[in-house]
């Protein structure tokens, strides 16, 4: 039986969903059907057959949390063009290997993607600036529980920047993790604030902290 989507917010313009870990956001060369986009498309078409959805932001397959869909192309283009302006707060939760060097820190690195689609820390002549802020919420058994805010939206930036300082996200083999106590990657897009011209108030979207995270730390 197909699991029901976890809808966090919906109106005539937007559909915002809490994506589970291990589900693709959009289709890949190997998987066309089992994606969040396909589920969201089926959902709106059941309301009216001609309805469509358009992806606004993406998460990696193994990352869970907030994914925004637009219900028309105009809203999608507006959001994507002004994403860094409209998405005024983008927070994540992460569980990483080891203890952090500081209780809180702002990481600023230049990142570039190689031909194998792996992202690396580089220099400003080769890469694009990524800015990630972290705060340590708890530390237990050589694992750290972090609250993260991203100020840029570069591919894999949280994963790469944390790995670069010696604290890879648990379960993230691509970027150097050696342990995986929760059988999934320890990254979750937990909170989003959207400030859009069409809306009088700021949209504040929360995605509940995954149960696996809660079992490791007493998180709220």
Question: Your description of this structure?
Answer:
The protein has one domain: Pseudouridine synthase (2-Layer Sandwich), CATH 3.30.2350. Strands 1, 2, 3, 4, 5, 6, 7, 8, 9, 10 and 11 form an eleven-stranded mixed β-sheet that branches. It is α+β, with helices and mostly antiparallel strands. Strand 1 and strand 2 form a beta hairpin. The protein starts with 6 loop residues before the first strand and ends with a helix. The chain is globular and about 50 Å long. The protein contains five helices and eleven strands, in the order ββαββααβββββαββα. 18% of the residues lie in helices and 35% in strands. The longest helix has 12 residues.
Mean pLDDT, to the nearest integer, reads 94
The value of Rg in angstroms is 18 Å
- CATH hierarchy class name: Alpha Beta
Helix content estimate: 10-25%
> Would you list the SSEs in sequence order as H and E?
EEHEEHHEEEEEHEEH
Count the strands? 11
- By secondary-structure content and strand pairing, the structural class works out as alpha+beta
The third-level CATH topology is Pseudouridine synthase
List segments where confidence is low: pLDDT < 50 over at least 5 consecutive residues.
none
Q: Based on the coordinates given, report the CATH architecture.
A: 2-Layer Sandwich
Main beta sheet: strand number and arrangement? 11 strands, mixed
Kindly report how far apart the N and C termini lie.
30 Å
Give the count of structural domains: 1
CATH superfamily: Pseudouridine synthase
> How many helices?
5
Percent of residues in beta strands? 25-35%
């Amino acid at each position: 039986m197909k699991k029901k989507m976890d809808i966090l917010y919906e109106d005539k313009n937007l559909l915002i969903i809490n994506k589970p870990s291990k589900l693709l956001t959009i289709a890949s060369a190997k998987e066309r059907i089992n994606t969040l986009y396909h589920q969201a498309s089926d959902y709106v078409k059941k309301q009216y057959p001609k309805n469509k959805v358009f992806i606004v932001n993406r998460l990696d397959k193994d990352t869970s949390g907030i994914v925004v869909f637009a219900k028309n192309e105009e809203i999608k283009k507006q959001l994507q063009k002004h994403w860094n302006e409209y998405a005024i707060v983008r927070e994540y939760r992460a569980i990483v290997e080891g203890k952090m060097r500081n209780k809180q820190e702002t990481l600023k690195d230049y990142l570039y993607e190689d031909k194998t689609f792996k992202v690396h820390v580089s220099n400003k002549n080769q890469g694009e600036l990524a800015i990630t802020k972290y705060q340590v919420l708890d530390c237990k058994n050589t694992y750290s529980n972090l609250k993260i805010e991203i100020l840029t939206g570069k591919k894999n930036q949280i994963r790469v920047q944390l790995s670069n300082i010696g604290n890879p996200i648990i379960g993230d083999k691509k970027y150097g993790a050696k342990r995986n106590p929760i059988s999934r990657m320890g990254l979750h897009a937990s909170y989003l604030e959207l400030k859009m011209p069409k809306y009088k108030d700021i949209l504040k979207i929360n995605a509940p902290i995954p149960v696996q995270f809660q079992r490791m730390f007493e998180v709220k």
